[in-house]
């Protein structure tokens, strides 16, 4: 766990501040108690409690969590500042791509993987659309709700493969128990992966809000 985490919202640029950029320090990081770094990808989820509220409206907005179990075929978007290709350069601005949630049978057959609390997704018509290095912790957004969190994968955009995501709905009770009680979707709470606590995804940069 990092000793210090900075949350940045309201800008599509990775390194350049703009007039709408907001910067807030984290007050507390809460990993899932069953997460075991370096030993398993299970329970790959955590919560960031921020010291101050973000100013919502305009360039930054909150986003609700998916409120039902995701099913295969649902169209979703991935968003992040990760590399465009495996081991490639990082983009200057946030990019997004469209994928679909895949059946568990695909995960088991093609990836040799099956794990409660996770889901897999890709674009089967264009397998190059995928999350990649630097996207870990970013959102899988379906129906304008955070449905998954980028966890891991086999390479980036590999044929007959898919990205693996933490299933947000599966952990809804733990999220609610450890989030600020002030609102259903508290401004001071960010849902993130434990692999890489670097991405804030409240910026409305892809038309998702």
From TrEMBL:
CDD domains, alphabetically?
Answer: Tryp_SPc
Using the UniProt record, give the first listed, main subcellular location: secreted
Cited Pfam families: Trypsin
Q: Does the keyword Protease apply?
A: yes
- What keywords is this UniProt entry annotated with? Disulfide bond, Hydrolase, Protease, Secreted, Serine protease
Protease as UniProt keyword: yes
Annotated ranges, domain Peptidase S1: 1-180
| One Gene Ontology cellular component | extracellular space
GO MF entry, a single one = serine-type endopeptidase activity
Q: Which domain of life is it from?
A: Eukaryota
GO:BP terms for this protein?
proteolysis
Subcellular localization: Secreted
Q: Can you tell me which family this protein belongs to?
A: Belongs to the peptidase S1 family. CLIP subfamily.
> What protein name is recorded for this chain?
Anionic trypsin-2 isoform X2
The organism named in the record is: Drosophila suzukii (Spotted-wing drosophila fruit fly)
Gene name per UniProt = LOC108016678
């Amino acid at each position: 766990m990092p000793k210090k985490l900075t949350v940045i919202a309201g800008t599509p640029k990775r390194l350049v501040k703009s007039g709408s950029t907001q910067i807030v320090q984290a007050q507390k990081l809460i990993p899932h108690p069953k997460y075991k770094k370096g030993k398993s990808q299970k329970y790959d989820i955590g919560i960031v409690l921020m010291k101050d509220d973000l100013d919502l409206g305009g360039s930054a907005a909150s986003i609700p969590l998916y409120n039902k179990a995701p099913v295969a075929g649902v169209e979703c978007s991935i968003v992040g500042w990760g590399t465009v290709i495996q081991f490639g350069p990082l983009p200057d601005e946030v990019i997004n791509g469209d994928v679909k949630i895949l059946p568990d049978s695909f995960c088991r057959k093609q990836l040799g993987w099956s794990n409660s609390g996770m889901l897999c997704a890709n674009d089967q018509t264009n397998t190059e659309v995928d999350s990649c290095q630097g996207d870990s912790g970013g959102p899988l957004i379906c129906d304008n709700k955070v449905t998954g969190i980028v966890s891991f994968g086999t390479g980036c955009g590999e044929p007959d493969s898919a990205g693996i995501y933490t299933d947000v709905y599966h952990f809804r009770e733990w999220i609610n128990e450890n989030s600020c009680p002030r609102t259903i979707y508290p401004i001071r709470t960010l849902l993130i992966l434990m692999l890489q606590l670097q991405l804030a995804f409240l910026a409305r940069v892809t038309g998702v809000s």
